[in-house]
Amino acid sequence: MQISRRTVLTVAGATAGLGLPMVMPSRVFGANEEILMGQIGLGIRGIGAHIPGFANQKGVRIIAVADPDLERTAQAARLIETRYGYKVDQYQDMRRIFDRKEIVAVGNATMNYWHGLSTIWACQAGKHVYIEKPLSHYIWEGRQMVNAARKYGRIVQHGTQRRAESAIPKMIAWLREGHLGKIQAIYCFAYKPRTSCGKRTQPLPIPPTLDYDLWCGPAKKEPVYRDRLQYDCSFTWDKGDAESCNQGVHEIDVARWILGTDALPQRVMSIGGRFVWDDACDVPNTQIICYVFPEAPIFYEARNLRHAKNSNQVSDFRGERVGVIVQCEGGWLSVYRRTAWDSSGKQIATFSGDGDIFANFIEALRRNDPKHLVADIEVGHLSTRICHVGNISYRVGRRASLAEQRAAVQQGPPGWEPWFDRYLEHLTAHEIDPNTATLGPWLECDTPNECIKDHPEANKIVRGWYREPYVVPEIRWPE
Q: If you ran DSSP here, which 8-state letter would residue 48 be given?
């Protein structure tokens, strides 16, 4: 099929109400002028993606790294010196990087609970930011991050790297031309096996290289009863946002892009639990979410358990372990496989086109143009907040009988009950009693006010909690 460049660019850039500033109070960089960067957060994404993502680009130099764990800063410094041939400064406190006037931009791969405050601090210090997904730990916090980027005129990219793939706008344009008919539902899923985070009887010793107060930052500072300190904090509500947001924001972002909506869902509900593992983490390891949009529903599922008890097999949906599948009247499209089939199973279209989201961020800096970003901070906020409302339903839910769950599911759109039945099959494969699951209520969302209608308990989670002195400030924009 032939799709015009104009059509593709229109789909790729169609996000209403971004409110990008018309004038940026910073300069354009010449094509050969060196951009000096700092990198904060030196875990899996910081060392494995951000450092090569930026340092491999011509005219970009990382001159400083920061992490509360000095062992990690040393590891990052060794990597940069070995691979790229120059030394970097090492800091424990990210604010030392923000104080460096020659540093123009920051790669931010801190943990979820640090995203909000660190990005706002960086914007206030005049730094442009590439911030990892999910954008925020709370919905209100995400809006303050957007406001900070606007108020201080900063270019801020969100790390939903699928936005850089040129194949996706082509698929969206093709769907909108009606080749498969009306969209009936979008299935988003992540079947990523994890392991229990353990449950200690004595607190985990804190390494002497780690500033634990700084590491905890806005979250609670308390003894750790997990077996591992760092990444497993993602599986606690205090510091993480569950698989449905940590990974799910990628798939939900693509689904929202396909629907062409900037709204929260009209209604949302979630069911699931932390099954099998009796450990010190508290987010669900098995979860389904129904997001009801007027365009079409989005059904989400996360599985951190393997396919069945005593099995090493990983679950899949139509042959994929992580994906976005668009079910239409006349067939279906796999976004990640870039392939469409008709109702008879005949392959009828394939798509191609990649992209580099790190390069896109640097190009936006060189142009001094936030509109060049493929995943501007508000694009990230609009998608992340959808994931948050799904988790909020779960968090204000209660243990309920299978009959109660079934009755609630039957209040949903067509397709939700079969998705629920599929989830029950997974529980049966693990010999899990479905009556032990948490049933989240149907919540009505208020898009203009970015909250939940008539539910004070849910809106406490919308607003979030912070530990002094690491408190996310309210940023008014426009003033």
A: I
Q: What is the pLDDT along the chain (479 residues), one digit of tens a residue?
A: 333 333 333 344 444 344 444 334 566 776 678 999 999 999 999 999 999 999 999 999 999 999 999 999 999 999 999 999 999 999 999 999 999 999 999 999 999 999 999 999 999 999 999 999 999 999 999 999 999 999 999 999 999 999 999 999 999 999 999 999 999 999 999 999 999 999 999 999 999 999 999 999 999 999 999 999 999 999 999 999 999 999 999 999 999 999 999 999 999 999 999 999 999 999 999 999 999 999 999 999 999 999 999 999 999 999 999 999 999 999 999 999 999 999 999 999 999 999 999 999 999 999 999 999 999 999 999 999 999 999 999 999 999 999 999 999 999 999 999 999 999 999 999 999 999 999 999 999 999 999 999 999 999 999 999 999 999 999 999 98
Tokens at 234, concatenated: 């993602």
Torsion of CA 313, 319, 322, 326, to 10 degrees: -150
The alpha carbons of the chain give a radius of gyration, in whole angstroms, of 22
Closest Cα partner for 172 from 295, 338, 415?
Answer: 338
